[in-house]
Amino acid sequence: MPVFEYAPAPESRAVVDIAPSYGLFIDGEFTEAGDGKVFKTLSPSSEEVLSEVAQAGAEDVDRAVRAARKAFGTWSALPGAERAKYLFRIARIIQERSRELAVLESLDNGKPIRESRDADLPLVAAHFFYYAGWADKLAYAGYGPDPRPLGVAGQIIPWNFPLLMLAWKIAPALATGNTVVLKPAETTPLSALFFADICRQAGLPNGVVNIVTGDGSTGAELVAHPGIDKVAFTGSTEVGKAIARTVAGTKKKVTLELGGKAANIVFDDAPIDQAVEGIVGGIFFNQGHVCCAGSRLLVQESVQDELLDALKRRMSTLRVGDPLDKNTDIGAINSAEQLARIRALADAGEAEGAERWAPECELPSSGYWFAPTLFTGVTQAHRIAREEIFGPVLSVLTFRTPEEAVAKANNTPYGLSAGIWTEKGSRILWMANKLRAGVVWSNTFNKFDPASPFGGYKESGYGREGGRHGLEAYLAGAAEPTSEHRGHLPPEAGGKGEGERDR
Amino acid sequence: MKQPERLSVLKTYKLFVGGKFPRSESGRVYEVTDAKGRWLANAPLASRKDARDAVVAARKAFGGWSGATAYNRGQILYRVAEMLEGRRKQFVHEVADGEGLSKAKATAQVDAAIDRWVWYAGWSDKTAQIAGSANPVAGPYFNLSSPEPTGVVVLLAPQESSLLGLVSVIAPAIVTGNTAVVVAAERAPLPALSLAEVLATSDLPGGVVNILSGRTAEIAAPLAAHQDVNAIDLAGAEPELAVELEKAAAENLKRVLRPQAVDWAADPGTGRLLAFLETKTVWHPMGV
Amino acid sequence: MPTTVPAYGEEAAERLASMADVTAGDSALRRFLHGLPGVDAVGLQARAATLGTRSIKTTAKAYAIDLAISMIDLTTLEGADTPGKVRSLCAKGINPDPTDRTAPRVAAICVYGDMVATAKEALKDSGIHVAAVATAFPSGRAALSVKLADTREAVAAGADEIDMVIDRGAFLSGRYLEVFEEIRQVKAACVREDGSGTAAHLKVIFETGELQTYDNVRRASWLAMLAGADFIKTSTGKVAVNATPPVTLVLLEAVRDFRAAVGVRVGVKPAGGIRTSKDAIKYLVMVNETLGEEWLSPEWFRFGASSLLNDLLMQRQKLSTGRYSGPDYVTVD
């Protein structure tokens, strides 16, 4: 009897037209880097060079910040309703071009097209829709009767959800009247550059959005630039700390979305099949390149064997391979560097005595790949239970009582997210209350929505993105302690031009 | 024969840590003088170890205090106001001496400080209602965001307002469930040390507020660097010190409230109340 | 095409017997069924929807279409059924696409009990089974004696398979043991009285649209499997909500877990509302990724459907000719 082999079902690459090279998007135009430096961006699934991108230096960052400053006066003075319409336009164009952008994202990032198509792109458009609606309602957001923008926001985003993180940064910034200089990640610059074209199509005034591509040094220049009023960063905790040090003593407002080591806690009365799906989605979604990934499975000892059997069975059905194949569940690791880090930590897991398991799966010969992997017999002392792996590697620990589960879940410097699986409602609420994490998913995991605030406790960063709370990061006076600051905001925020600022 | 004037009984001011009144671990004190340089008292000169002990006490108290009902915290804060009222004269005296104010001005400060406690006490069960939200997500999920206390907060009390300023940084931090390590105004620590006596008799659980006196820069440095401190209010830090502390605070990503000019007598708004909160968002599916 | 329906071996009987304690009494059975893991509706639906996004193309699609045709219980259950209608349906089942003899036959013709003899005669030695609905289908509201007589008559008339309905009223009021006993007795009534020692195979219909919750569906699945069901089936096709991907996923998961626990394999039949090839393929993907290839055969998985067949045939024609087909190129029966 023939077997049910799914034939390849590749999404067409032809829907996206990638130019051989891209400049920096500054003041509405693509320009080369001042010193002419470029770097290559690869497709991590094939190591094929997709394009050459400008490497922005100090001078370029400065140009971008000046452009944003110049645009700020007019942009912030626009009636909110007008800013809203620009954002609605952007949201619509993203929807129209979602197939193209999904393919692009999968090419540049390595994530499966199923996810870029069904998760990333719909969330990107939704985020712009959501914040578009806020632009003319800010007075009702709970941040005072006349909340003002901060000025120029320097925004740095990671490579795991390039376009979605762009949306999380740009949508609220623009809705509140700020202008932005955004730096996409070094390995995934393309969707941000395509977004520049969307800004052009939407007729967005020049300089409101500026995109500077580059590596960490570009980001450091941006953070340190005296002309920005706000730093919004999503990325590693290590870089987050460096940013916090850099801005010390300035007036720059900062929000940081950093790492995590989330516990996904499964009780013996959990809806087992859905818990298994939640565990799988929690750690293998986006190859585990997710700051809120459920990377520590805490399973109640009494149900451990049953759950692990079911989990392994389910992991065996995961399809690893070509990101553009519509049936792929797990795509490529984003970069050689990240792959090396995942391998090193997985090896450490083995060396420290945890038991490693992965389903049989054939990995492509070129590109960066890592099979979905499970470690059992992990304790809190193991590196793989403490360090963020940012890959498809799950560490399994056990607990006996709810108290123990909470203690273990909270026993980390991070505090971004957590999962709880039990059919007992009161226990969910008790647990949710005790867990020191910014997002608690109960009987679900890795759900996102523009209306839902997202962000961490402790070393997972500060500030929230999404929802009404996400506005605060871009408004002056929102959390200022005095009436002086809330009531008599210096007019600078309102529209003084460049050079008049007193800093 | 003329009776000799009664010799008054002086108070030995002590630190307030974990609900107890220890002397400084350093065994040292420093002279507190009035605005004209007259000796008022010796205040304990808190050391790094006192700071460490205070953090331990604050952490220990955090679970119970943050887990108490908002109503209960409100009741206790209101009780603090009642106790302050009862010692009004003493505080007027200390504030007038420490800040070099007239009796009338000092009285105004003390009255405002008492009223501020009352104001913040009332916030205990309202903060979540202004800072939280029900989020209409695009899917079958119940989704609720609510504020939670950040944890252990270090408060560098304002240097220029020894009671009203002090109260204005302590009350908003603890009413939401944080626990605090307070560094009293360096030159005028007496109202803070006396406030400790009020707090100790107001049903406030030990460790919720810990008060240290001494050199702000010396005590603040280890606190800003302490890995088990979640946030720091730099109200009482000089600009240079503030930068240093903010840098140290980056090591474990403390939430930092930078110093700024504040009129402590003005309506404080909700800024400080909301500054040391974390938003927790809980998702749950809705299905039969 | 293998058309033997599952039968329990000696060993399976023993292992089933090992579960006897859970069906020993009303409270034991209730405790067992209520002790099964819960089903989170939203998570279940999301999983079913995700499986529905699998893209089945070219060779995989051709395979899936033929497999789906071979799994169809081609059904007519109308008050207006006549011998003529049943005969033409049988002819269609034997030779679904008159223009293409390579099209596989369907698995069974599903009719009311009084049409069994007609269908049996029309199907002759085609290998296609006759399935009869029984036990006061579709409501199940009749005395047990009537239900048993209904079953026996259909079996005597030559039915290869009996599609019984459970008493949803008893189930919803918590009288699980009563439902269990009823299934057992119907199972016994499936034994042929010709002395062959063989029995018609029993499919147990839950009418999941009336059980309402997925928890109930999982409980009903275990209840029926413990009572000896050869197949578990979602629906009669006679109520507003029939087979859905999530409800079928619950059945598949229950079958998977029952096999793991007891070692007995049971078949699954979604019925009602599956009309397009695209839908049918989604179900096959669900079977493939929940139970595995072992279940991808008419022995273990069926579709209760009527209009689905023509859509599968049109898709089949499209694959072989490259042109889209139309309703005039498939037969209306």
TrEMBL record, chain A:
Molecular function (Gene Ontology), one example: oxidoreductase activity, acting on the aldehyde or oxo group of donors, NAD or NADP as acceptor
Signal peptide start and end residues: none
Pfam entry (one): Aldedh
UniProt KW keywords: Oxidoreductase
All residue ranges annotated as the Aldehyde dehydrogenase domain in the record: 33-475
PROSITE patterns in alphabetical order: ALDEHYDE_DEHYDR_GLU (PS00687)
Catalytic residue positions: E257
UniProt organism field: Streptomyces malaysiensis subsp. samsunensis
Protein name, UniProt field: Aldehyde dehydrogenase family protein
Gene3D superfamilies with a match to the protein in the record: Aldehyde Dehydrogenase, Chain A, domain 1, Aldehyde Dehydrogenase, Chain A, domain 2
Protein family according to the UniProt entry: Belongs to the aldehyde dehydrogenase family.
Entries under InterPro entries matching the protein: Ald_DH/histidinol_DH, Ald_DH_C, Ald_DH_CS_GLU, Ald_DH_N, Aldehyde_DH_dom
TrEMBL record, chain B:
InterPro entries xref list: Ald_DH/histidinol_DH, Ald_DH_N, Aldehyde_DH_dom
Domain Aldehyde dehydrogenase: 25-256
Gene3D superfamilies the UniProt entry points to: Aldehyde Dehydrogenase, Chain A, domain 1 (3.40.605.10)
The protein, known as: Aldehyde dehydrogenase family protein
Keywords, comma-separated and alphabetical: Oxidoreductase
One Pfam family this sequence matches: Aldedh
Annotated PANTHER family: ALDEHYDE DEHYDROGENASE-RELATED (PTHR11699)
MF GO annotations: oxidoreductase activity
Source organism of the structure: Streptomyces malaysiensis subsp. samsunensis
Automatic annotation (TrEMBL), chain C:
Record key words, sorted: Lyase, Schiff base
Xref: InterPro entries: Aldolase_TIM, DeoC, DeoC/FbaB/LacD_aldolase
GO molecular function, one term: deoxyribose-phosphate aldolase activity
Gene Ontology cellular component annotations, sorted alphabetically: cytoplasm
E.C. designation(s): 4.1.2.4
Catalyzed chemical reaction(s): 2-deoxy-D-ribose 5-phosphate = D-glyceraldehyde 3-phosphate + acetaldehyde
Pathway involvement of the protein, from the record: Carbohydrate degradation; 2-deoxy-D-ribose 1-phosphate degradation; D-glyceraldehyde 3-phosphate and acetaldehyde from 2-deoxy-alpha-D-ribose 1-phosphate: step 2/2
Any GO BP annotation: deoxyribonucleotide catabolic process
Transmembrane segments: none
PANTHER family found in the cross-reference section: DEOXYRIBOSE-PHOSPHATE ALDOLASE
Family: Belongs to the DeoC/FbaB aldolase family. DeoC type 2 subfamily.
Name by which UniProt lists this protein: Deoxyribose-phosphate aldolase
Species for this entry: Streptomyces malaysiensis subsp. samsunensis
